Records
---
Amino acid sequence: MVTSAHVPQQAGPAPAARHASQGRHEPPDHLPGTPVPAVPLGSVLVPVSALHPAPGPAPTDPDAVPDVPSGYDLTRLAPVAWWLRRRSWQFQLIVPNQILFWVVIVVGFVGPEAFDDNFATAITWFVWFSLVFVLILATGRGWCAVCPFGGLAEWIQRGRLWHGRGTAGRGLGLGRPAPDWLARGGYVTTAVMFGVLTWIEEYYKVSDDDWPGRTSWTVIGIIGFALVAFLLLERRAFCRYLCPLGGLIGVLGSGAPLTGFRARDRSVCRACTTKDCLRGRDGAYGCPWATWPGGSETGVNCGLCGECFRSCRSDNVGLFVEPPLAALTRSRGRRADVAWTVALLGGVMVHQHLHETEWWESLDTWANDLVGMPHGPNPVLFVVLTAAYTAALVAPVLLARSLFYRRPPGGLPRRGTSFTYRSTPLRAFLLPAFAAAVPLLGCDYLCVELLNLFQDSPKVLPAAGRVLGVVHGDSSLASLELLGADAVVHVQWVVLALGTLASALAYWRVSAAEIAPVARAPRVVQVGGVALIGLGGALLVWYYTLTQGAAG
Amino acid sequence: MTTGNQAVPRPPAERVPVDVRIGADRCVGCLACADVCKAGALHLIPGVWAVEADVARCTACRRCEAACPFHAVAVTGTPRNKHQLVLDTLQGALASTCPPDWTVSTRPPGFRSPTEPDGVVPDLAVVRTARRGPAWLGEGDGAVSLVVEVTSPTSRDADAGPRRDTYWQCGVPAYWTVDQRTGAVEVQWSTGSAWFDRWAGFAFC
């Protein structure tokens, strides 16, 4: 019987009882007058759940995240909460930076031509670019909160300096959403932008001993790029998808103790129907960074502007601090774009390292002669090296996946089909491993700048004195060094040792939580990964020792 | 356009299939879209703060698009009411189960009818072998295996009376009616010698 064979469990009255017909016949085994179909039509009977849209699965918190997040809520301190409630605090922090950057632009053009004597180059390359990495490792996106590029562009986009939405003025921005192709790549585009900026900086010798006006042009270029993007796109889409430093700061700062604004109780956010933190309300904007405090677990996407803190009607948002690495090692929803950004940023740094060596310089010269470029770095070599470095990073992970992958009971967790979240066996190994490399990479970036910070930063004072007209001629401060070259190398050793230790610890934790469930020999994968991180740290120590600090 | 039974069957109306795309990097999993979705078509992906859509449930009402603060949801396709939703679901299930050379159509040509100039157009028809060119159902190359009507309170009498008679007269061997409100399915087979033999019927809910 077709029906009884295929729908035996269906509830409902018996056919004969339900439908009294004029003449009762035995039901045919197949459609009358037709050959028996390969698949009887009775088998297509659809489950009722498909026919009738009952409510879908109840929304669940990913991986049963605790409703109360870990960490200490800084806004429990009354002065902190009072300060963050003021709309003007971010403005107050941005304004000095803004003034400084316009001074940099002007002085770069009209100031002394000597690189070390010019305030624009001294403050930018000897101090700012060093301190920004300290800020990243300590506060995550702390720099983004006070960034003069985004700050200026946001004022123009909103048509307000610090006032909330609906209180004054009218913005100039078109407010278009970021294009899909841009959003789909996540931070990968920002890593590429950072590579492009680094190449421009090296090609035009912006940070080398050359005309200071190039520094001014670089700042003008970034401000112009930010302005155009802010006027076209909504919120801070520029910072999320285009800013050359956006991915760098977010990724390298993902292990920082300051983990951004998050919900005090996620259940309150889930029950919230107004979502003011995302949409904004009178006096407060929706999150410019397109981040939801109710789902945020790290500070990677939190720009620390505090709009959510001010807009939440339930007073359910706080600013959290946690032990270093805590957010990085938390194993939920790792994103592929973050992992590839780590690889690309590593490739850019390796190029910077090799660029300092003579044999790479000769290779650059050879390549430039081939393509007719006047000087290096050769862009093709730059791209090839970055790709080769990425491949070299992936190779051991691929080997580990080939040797040790074990399909977990029930298969890999389903994470959708997007580039960002898709689940594959390689990604099960790669995403945690690359995340664990972040501390070492961050320390490497910091080390490159340490020589400038400890040996050249005092030059800022006489350079500033020249701008103010209080210093004329040479100054003894210009030759002052905070640390000698050898001492700087020792500091670099310490920083690299800390970075290596942090990465090894992070890998040990994430591999135990995320790789072990899909690995046949988890201990081998754990020990092997830690050994590779140790090898990477040792290579960097060797490099900095060999190049005596490798001034960036 | 039509002159009695000599009319050329009307071409199927164009309907764009419903599709829902969620921008994975835009979506933060706030469930603002799920809050307004009356069809229950949106839910969180386990382990990820991002939403996924069950397209089979989506009616393309686009409330979710308007509700999303970050433009993460993009719905395309012709909006469909409950009638169309049931039909599309049936079509998908039948198409995946029938032999590959059978055609499952939700806007088929009509059957020739002495009373209706445009013919009687069923909600869904399953036709064996490919049809070539416009022709009345049952008179082209393909043989009709099944006709389905999704019934509402207003159409139930017609579906159970004149329409069913037309289908029988045109040689349709199997006829299903699906109540769009309750999901009850009534399966009727033609014996070839008499009226439809309503030998079976069962409910899905």
---
Amino acid sequence: MATTTMHDAHHDAHPTGVMRWLTSTNHKDIGTLYLWFSFLMFLFAGGLAMLIRAELFQPGLQFFQPNLFNQFTTMHGLIMIFGAIMPAFVGFANWQVPLMIGAPDMAFPRLNNWSFWLLPAAAILLLVSFLVPGGAVAGGWTMYPPLFIQGGMAYDMTIFAVHLMGLSSIMGSINIITTILNMRTPGMTMMRMPIFVWTWLITAFLLISAMPVLASAVTMLLTDRHFGTYFFNAAGGGDPVMFQHIFWFFGHPEVYIMILPAFGILSSIIPTFSRKPLFGYDSMVYATAAIAVLSFTVWAHHMFTVGMPTASQLFFMYATMLIAIPTGVKVFNWTATMWRGSISFETPMLFAIAVVCLFTIGGFSGLVLAIVPVDIQLQDTYYVVAHFHYVLFSGAAMSIMAGVYYWLPKWTGHMYDETLGKWHFWLTTIAFNVTFFPMHFLGLAGMPRRIPDYALQFAEFNMLQSISSFVLGASQLLFLYIVIKCIRGGVPAGDRPWEGADSLEWTLSSPPPYHSFETAPAFK
Amino acid sequence: MQTIEQTNTQRYYVPAPSWWPLVGSVALLLLASGFVILLQNNPSGSYVMIAGALILITMLFGWFGTVIRESVGGLFNDQVDLSYRWGMGWFIFSEVMFFGALFGALFYARVITVPELGDTKLLWPNYEGTWPTAGPGVKETFAAMPAWGIPAINTLILLTSGATVTWAHWGLKNDNRTQLKIGLILTILLGAIFITLQIHEYSSATFTFQTGIYGATFYILTGFHGAHVTLGAIMLAVILGRVYAGHFTPERHFAFEAVSWYWHFVDVVWLLLFVFVYWLI
């Protein structure tokens, strides 16, 4: 690539103030917008979780009527998934993919901005729906009919919010795939890309495959609600179970959409702090691809209790268990990377190690739930809640925290406060486990989820969990403080604050220049 | 001019900050909230929707206009061109998945739900469970749309339009602008005839969107397909306008190709519709 000295005028236009954010075509600024948006949503949906735990502090109804409680659980799920976890990972993709492959920006910078600004529009619809007559959606984040068809105005708002978020995800994913396929620096072949880039390539493929299916599903909900169709009504030859099939055909890939980028972050952090190259790069790529392919063949394991032929149950049970193999490959590779490494335990590495351990617990409880006869017992109990919080909080959300600590020095040019970071880590990890580990026991003992009241024998564990969850919530405010403190100043990070890090972003200054790589960098 | 073009095409074009994405988001938020209001039987929602639609159209003109000016101004190098190809390809893939889910609903209803409702004698003992059906609880007599009338003619029309758009493409590649223009005009006309016949078919149907699962799957599949044909014809018309404005060279004409890809995709969806919605009943 020839070097250029002449820039046309608008290339170097750097709008300041609010314009910088509203009209941005810069992958780093848009990445920052995504990350802050997701953090706000994380705090809001976390606030809902605090209200849920306050109600569950004691048996009996304390603060909220059941309908309001149902709104809290439903919106907690919807906002955490679509508002917090997914946008956070897209924020990472925006910041890191161009930096890691040596590109000047994303392939479609304006489209990138639209992908972000659709999210606040969707968030407005979702948040305002709390205030309309009848309140927010209350039938669970899975939006099952017939409950979803019977609800009020908020249900329509949720449908359109899902449409907007789907549009955002699809456009964002097209952008990410195109960037990865077309904008790598010369010499960076597919099998030499950083694993984080690989995981996002496959995640983007999953998003483009899954989100249109969700759009179809909610569109049929809309016509059933308002235009007299019978898609999900047996009187007209439709079937509410059909919605569950279509929803989970989206929903199960969605689960991997929320964990594959986390695997990518772990695969960046663990080699750096072990001071060894990632063990088994190729098998890591193949395992990621295998998980993605399998994710389309397991959806009905969410539906073992709605009734299906034994042959189908067996198929979905075994297909689900197969996913443990590529996932096991990954856990093995991370462990082997650390083996005989020269490990140091800075905050990102602490989070990464904790994720490897805790996510594995979530994976194992997933295997338990895959067994049909066991699942029939555990369906809709707190065992399921424990399972998916081990996967989504200690898998996805704690990977996001790990990634934030890992790349904050690159993004801001300052080191974060290591002491406070370690406090945040230990508080989060301990409080998380005290909150969610006993849920396995409660679920096995038969405590149903999504119910504001419970039997007396569950009281001790629930009180302990509520107290612990308040600690978990409060420690995220510490996280907020650490991030703000780091942005406002601190020890200069230098170009490469982690001596073991070797991907391309560490060859740039911290923070990186406005157009990340003006010319394609050399790649050894 | 020559030197600027050279300088710019050496590196990947990163556009300047733009208001259009934000304008687009506001438009879609207005459209969505207007529709929500309208659905609560409050007619004022339609004003909000009209405002949203006008803003959206403005955005589309503004944004696409900017891209066309950039393209004509020579700001896009081969790498940018390839980006657009990947982008359009993956966009069409997302449309495949959207229609895939709707076809999935059709197959699920036909293969699993309806036979099962026929076998289960508890609620509706007299229900046969054969396709086409409005379901056991909807008392409506209707005739399914026959395949060998308008739908068969429409199949021929769309297949022909696929040929004419390819013929136009050959004209473009051989720098035969007359062939290009005639091919495009023919394609747009065939698309318009298709839509007209489709509207005629709808108006003569003996069933509605509310005629059980048959009506629901019929109208949602053919309806979304018809909307895509309409959009495709509008896109072809824009391309025709650009041809008259002298855009496109035999080597560089991705916008034309993108629209023709889209047109072929819509064509393939129709073939599946013809087989599974009209023919195999």
---
Amino acid sequence: MTLDRRSFLGAAALLTASPVLFAQAATERRFVFIIQRGAADGLNAVIPYAEPAYARLRGALAVDPESALKLDGTFALHPSLPKLRELYAAGEASFFHAVASPYRDRSHFDGQNVLETGGSAAYQVKDGWMNRLVGLLPRRGKDAIAFSPAVPMALRGPIEVTTYAPSALPQANDDLMLRVEQLYAKDSLLHALWSSALDARGMAGEMSGSEKRQDPPALGRIAAGFLARTDGPRIAMIETTGWDTHSGQNARLAAQLKGLDNLIAALRDGMGSAWSQTVILVATEFGRTVAANGTGGTDHGTGAAAMLVGGAVQGGRVIADWPGLSSASLHDGRDLKPTLALDRLMASASAEAFGLEPERTARVLFPDSVRGQSMQKLLRA
Amino acid sequence: MRASAIALNRFGLGARPDDPSPPEPQRWLLSQFDAYEPIPGPWKPLPRSSALVETWLVQQRAARQAPEGQRSGIREAYLRQGRDAYIAAVGARTSSALQSSTPFVERLVHFWSNHFAVSVDKLLVVGLAGGFEADAIRPNVLGRFEDLLLAVVRHPAMLLYLDQAQSIGPSSLAGMRAGERQQRPRGLNENLAREILELHTLGVRSGYTQSDVTEFARALTGWTLPGDDALQPATNTFRFVPALHEPGARTVLGRSYADGGEQQARAIIHDLVTAPATAHHIARKLARHFVADDPPTELVQRLTSTFERSGGDLPSLYRELLASKEAWQPASAKFKSPWDWALSSFRALGRQEIPAAQAANLMNQLGQPVWRPGSPAGYDDLTATWAAPDSLLRRIEVAQRIAMQAGTAVDARSLATRVLPGSLSDDTASAIARAESASTALALLLVSPEFLRR
């Protein structure tokens, strides 16, 4: 079809009148990263119940295989993850075990920095891998959002990212807002923050007051409210905390996992038809010790579990090159040995989600990591 | 910014409308060392740590002796009481900051309290967090780093927060007995040892290994709270229990420490404090807090050598900072944290106190709840953390609310020149002058680019 000037103007006017059309994305896929801050215990989330050393090393922390939700002959989910078990049965969830970023020490803060920057050592890379991922997509604005008051490291970088967290404060009046806008016009930092905040609040304006709370189901509904929109963000990050279970692990981990299960279920329910385009990655900075410690908990470890969940996921699988838990096979004699690079999983899932070339994607997101085969067919075609 | 505005805003908690602009800014800051009150008025009515520990012990004893069915009720009652104590302490902290005439030293209290962070999202800590700041931090910010560190790691809030109170040497008397009776396994917990090395002293990636962490954790076994079986009220808030202590010599960072009971971990701590990595870690953090996210290398070097030369004498460190030209650069390099911003806003209005529950709630809404950083690293100290879209909007909402409460009593035009002496921009001055109402003018002052930074 060719357009003369008159009909072109007509079409442009039509597009302006319906911004939804105008903003139509080059991609329909949604990619959500749920970070588990504090080193989530992969061995009690995705439990190697058939491994004889598990019950012995975990002692009172071992989950009874009778109550665990079986995935296959080797692995089972913690009883607090029933909705993830349903998603697995529906072919919409895969679990990955013995995964780790390149980081091998045991500091949360350094570990999270490596996980979020995509570097091979802490503080080597100055921006986040998700910000670089946004840079690989066709730009349309409002591409990425963090559901937290501040921008987490993974999304920091040259590309503007918005943040949204529900607030109980009364909104400022329009007159003040207008004057603040003028006041920030010459301040590059404040001006950028300001525009971005207004966009996010505009989208959230359509939600009811009762949804502006922050328990996991509410957070899931809020995030879905943004992500389900045709003109909404395509890349999002949700932060979860409280995974550092040095003591009283049984009750604490059960509550944490229940929160995660409900968060993901609320996302699924809220996404509607966009669920079939959705990929959720769940990962943590490192795992926890295989053996229980002396105080009913576990200490900082190495290998952990990760998850891919969503309607676009080629699920129903547990993917692991299982190293075993015998004392000879442990990393440093105490931790689950990592056999699958988390970087590779994250790069492969990102590339597949957006139809990007896998090698190039891996180089941009994780510039320092050792290259290997990219993982294939993580998602539905 | 002029030097007097720097003294008030960069090193203080923000100017109050009736504060005279200090004619000799550096001398004014230094004079605060003598005028500082460790326990000022707002803290005085609050129970001290010994009383808080006594309450905790009474609860432990009651729960132990009660029939199974009543225990959760006892615990809940204690937690309710703890939440009340937390709110009251947030109120005391806020009022002290608003009323203080030694705002530089108050800032140092907040700095150290965050460096040695406890977080009340661990419920056991809720009732003790205020006592931690009052008794471990406040009396020691003008002393030696080693004394401050010891007060911190021996305080019940820290012992509970980082699980030290439950750590037991596997070959200690208690550990062996538990093993014999086939009780639920109890033993070593390395959390406190790791965070002392990583966060409190040497800093991460400074060369210690997993084995140093474990060895230090073994040396620390026995450091715990007073027992709940004592018949007398607890007068002490710390106890060393030889039966929990792992026997034997320990090796940390290549140095061997003979078994000396409680003294063993103290000797390790002493060596950690005198390690060059600790001097550098503290110097850099202090410079980052007051001067810039990425502080000048020469400044950090000078502070490092002052720390080393003075044996960790904190006032020497502060004096070196104040004597440094880098600290007095006119441009404001730091974006205020929500806590600093809220305090400077209330101080600008001359507020003397905020109802305790309101202060606690406000900090939740601004994204920096008091004593709840969520991790032992505390809140970080970078523009990128606090200058985010949503948190900026919240400041604007809060500014509007504060300004409406102040009503028409405040003339933002004259207030602006008093709280930002010599550093008010023309743009902000004219935005304030043109505002449609007194409260909008005041809100604009509080969210202006120069008021958000220091």
---
Amino acid sequence: MTIAWPLFTPWSALLGGLLIGLATALFVLGNGRVAGIAGIVASPLRAVLGGTGLAPERTRLLFLAGLLLAPWLWRLFAPLPAVTVDVGGLGLVAAGLLVGVGVRMGNGCTSGHGVCGLSRLSLRSLVNVLAFMGTGMATVFALRHLIG
Amino acid sequence: MMNGAFAFFSGLLFGLGLIGSGMTNPAKVKGFLDVAGAWDPSLALVMAGAIAVGAFAFAAAKRRTTSWSGERIELPSSTLIDRRLVIGGMLFGAGWGIAGFCPGPALVAMGGGLGAAWIFGVAMLAGMLVHDRWLAPR
């Protein structure tokens, strides 16, 4: 294992992480809920398709609105950081389908199981995190070092 | 009313944290997952920073019954570790490794107007529907 020092951004990573932690704190202490983004997206989606109405989804929709508007607020003060996507359309579709199925089946993602679950010292979340971290690393290894 | 304000600012803060930490850039996420290549440990520090604050928040939440907005605090109660938890995590990890997007950063990048994030995001919503219709336990 060799650390890519030119790519490593410890201070912005830590500072951004603290902001994410504050957001999670605000959601759980303010609203009494876990800030798990997979669930926050899936719940209103089900309500729309099930025809049950969006009234009970109000807080989740407002959280999503904040998430979607964050880049707009950022752009008022600085340009958005550069982004590199190294997969094509087909790869993006396959990845999106896998993520969508996976986070529903495992009941959480990097925020719900990762940030919130590990903060709660949940063993269930730790198992899920190890599963997605391990498979994520194995997938990148296969794509970059076996096939690529 | 207050709960809506908390939710909105929480989402906004979460998004700013993802942008500031570099996690809306899939290349940076894949740089973390590429332990055999030139490894970028940044994502580990993002998690560490978030959990350092989150641990205090959840410890405080466990001692309270109502939130600031007056709603009951409801934390996940399940401790079940089963095949669905592990296989779900593995499927998610495979998709995460292919694209470098997970749900939060994908949504923020969609908000920023990134075309690739929209392709990923629409497929992700479709995947959620596929699960809920055909793969959910009955």
